[in-house]
């Protein structure tokens, strides 16, 4: 495998910032693992003098590597990427946060660009990122949704990355509280209501303390619960801004898809219908509903034949997605998922069924095999 000298990559290195790649000795043995921090300029100079090397394959950004990943690698890369984001969100403490969130976000954004249908699958299915805490999982779902909708609206790359990170960090100050409220059957306590009302500004404070200086990012987090008619919070302002406006809509939509101890999640078609009814005519809501459609990847459906299936990809029309059958018409579980054409009359989609009502589920790698 080809190697480059570390000294030739000096422009990609900074003292006090985690290494973006593994560093190897001149005999190619590992010296420093990716993520380690070079503490001083003297340490960096010593590495240059000893002829330290870097595998050229590692010079691709996490985003570039994800874009080029083979299909069979995608389930593992999604699990790894979402896990890394969850860990970064739970450890927002110092100046390395901005770099860490950039790197973790880049890997997931590359996966979104590699396969948007699989990205929507992550939003719809709970087990797709089951190891992430509830609050972090909700933030990731809203971030993926914001990015995809912004893309449909024609936003440029900088705005798309910014809205993704704003959605990821909007609830930074209440990630644990979100999990508590999801498990709680009683209404929030007085203390919890105060925490909910103040979380946008507290999240901004945490981001600033962690070294985030992007004013548009911070403003979107501060205003993600404000409404254009002035009825939002925490300040009741009307000048919300596009980033915050999209983050709020993505948050509302993904909240409808999330189950809690006191209520089941809404079916995807119902969630889209409610969004359209509650916010008719707004271009952001229209783009969201178009992007996810009636039967988005990850939702479970029953076919006219009686078979139960899961949507694994968007199809030629909004009513004819790509599905993988999980059971026979009599309800017998299939050991191997079967791809079927929902445009055929007897395989038309009859209805969406709740995830909790589906007893037979298959891992993502098995479902992806139906697309090959």
Assembly form of the protein: single chain
What is the fold named in CATH at topology level of the largest domain? Hypothetical protein af1432
Total DSSP helices? 14
CATH class assignment of the largest domain: Mainly Alpha
Structural class: alpha+beta
- Biggest sheet, in brief? 5 strands, antiparallel
* Shape assignment: globular
Please list the strands of the largest sheet in the order they lie side by side: 8-7-6-5-9
Q: Please count the beta strands (DSSP E, at least 2 residues each).
A: 9
Instruction: Give the H and E element order.
Output: EEEHEHHHHHHHHHHHHEEEEEH
Mean pLDDT comes to 89
C-alpha termini separation = 30 Å
> How much of the residues is beta strand, in percent?
5-15%
| Count of discrete structural domains | 3
Low-pLDDT segments? none
CATH superfamily of the largest domain: Hypothetical protein af1432
Helix content range: 40-55%
CA-based gyration radius: 22 Å
What is the second-level CATH architecture of the largest domain? Orthogonal Bundle
Compact description:
With 372 residues, the chain is α+β, with helices and mostly antiparallel strands. It is 45% helix and 11% strand.
Task: Describe the 3D structure.
- The chain has helices at residues 41-49, 62-67, 74-89, 97-114, 116-124, 134-152, 157-169, 175-183, 190-209, 215-222, 242-257, 268-278, 283-292, 364-368, and strands at 3-5, 23-24, 30-32, 53-55, 300-303, 308-313, 322-327, 333-341, 349-353.
- It is an alpha+beta fold.
- It folds into 3 domains: 3-59, no CATH class; 63-292, Hypothetical protein af1432 (Orthogonal Bundle); 300-371, no CATH class.
- Helix 3 (74-89) runs antiparallel to helix 4 and helix 5 (116-124) runs antiparallel to helix 6 (134-152).
- The longest helix is centred in the middle third of the chain and has 20 residues, at 190-209.
- 38% of the residues are buried.
- The model has no long low-confidence stretch (mean pLDDT 89).
């Amino acid at each position: 495998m080809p190697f480059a000298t570390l000294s030739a990559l000096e422009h990609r290195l900074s003292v006090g910032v985690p290494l973006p790649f593994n560093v190897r000795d001149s005999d190619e043995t590992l010296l420093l693992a990716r993520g380690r921090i070079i503490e001083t300029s003297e340490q960096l100079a010593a590495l240059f003098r000893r002829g330290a090397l870097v595998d050229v394959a590692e010079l691709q950004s996490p985003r570039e590597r994800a874009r080029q990943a083979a299909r069979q690698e995608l389930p593992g890369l999604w699990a790894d990427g979402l896990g890394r984001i969850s860990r970064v969100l739970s450890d927002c403490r110092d100046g390395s946060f901005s770099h860490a969130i950039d790197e973790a976000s880049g890997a997931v954004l590359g996966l979104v660009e590699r396969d948007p249908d699989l990205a929507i699958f992550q939003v719809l299915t709970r087990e797709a990122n089951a190891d992430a805490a509830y609050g972090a999982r909700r933030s990731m779902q809203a971030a993926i949704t914001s990015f995809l909708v912004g893309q449909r609206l024609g936003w440029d790359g900088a705005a798309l990355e910014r809205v993704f990170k704003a959605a990821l960090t909007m609830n930074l100050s209440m990630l644990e509280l979100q999990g508590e409220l999801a498990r709680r059957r009683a209404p929030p306590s007085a203390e919890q209501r105060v925490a909910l009302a103040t979380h946008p500004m507290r999240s901004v404070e945490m981001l600033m303390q962690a070294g985030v200086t992007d004013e548009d990012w911070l403003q979107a987090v501060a205003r993600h619960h404000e409404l254009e008619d002035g009825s939002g919070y925490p300040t009741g302002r009307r000048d919300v801004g596009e980033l915050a406006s999209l983050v709020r809509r993505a948050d509302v939509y993904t909240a409808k898809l999330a189950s809690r101890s006191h209520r089941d999640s809404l079916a995807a078609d119902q969630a889209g219908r409610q969004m359209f009814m509650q916010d008719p005519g707004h271009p952001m809501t229209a783009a969201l509903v178009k992007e996810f459609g009636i039967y988005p990847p990850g939702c479970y459906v029953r076919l006219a034949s009686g078979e139960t299936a899961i949507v694994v990809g968007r199809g030629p029309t909004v009513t004819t997605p790509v599905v993988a059958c999980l059971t026979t018409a009599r309800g017998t579980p299939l050991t191997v998922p079967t791809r079927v054409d929902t445009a055929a009359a007897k395989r038309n989609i009859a209805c969406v069924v709740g995830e909790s009502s589906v007893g037979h589920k298959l891992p993502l790698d098995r479902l992806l095999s139906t697309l090959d």
